[in-house]
Predict the structure.
Amino acid sequence: MADFPNMPREEAWEMAHSVVIHGDELAKIHAAEEALDDNEVEKGKQIMEWIKKPEVVFARTTPSQNFLLWTLANALATLLRSLVMVLTILQPLRKPTSALQWVLAQMLLRTLRT
């Protein structure tokens, strides 16, 4: 964004392949979301947006922030392992599997986007 000072922030974000998130920014977002109920849709949304980028670096984070990021990454890995397990179980069904795999993949993508 520093290379294009007149570009709107949202447009720069959409164009960015890589992002660097400073620990202070993570702390600000986490503090704002901490008051939210665990079932709130907005809770964790910003961090999910960050980790959707192909390359993301969290710089100058505290040990508690590292644990928060590890917990989130672990939850996503568990979700992906569960999806792979379901797809593996459905694999012998052959014909319905491709459509079902597509539906499950779309559901996963939709979940990751929200």
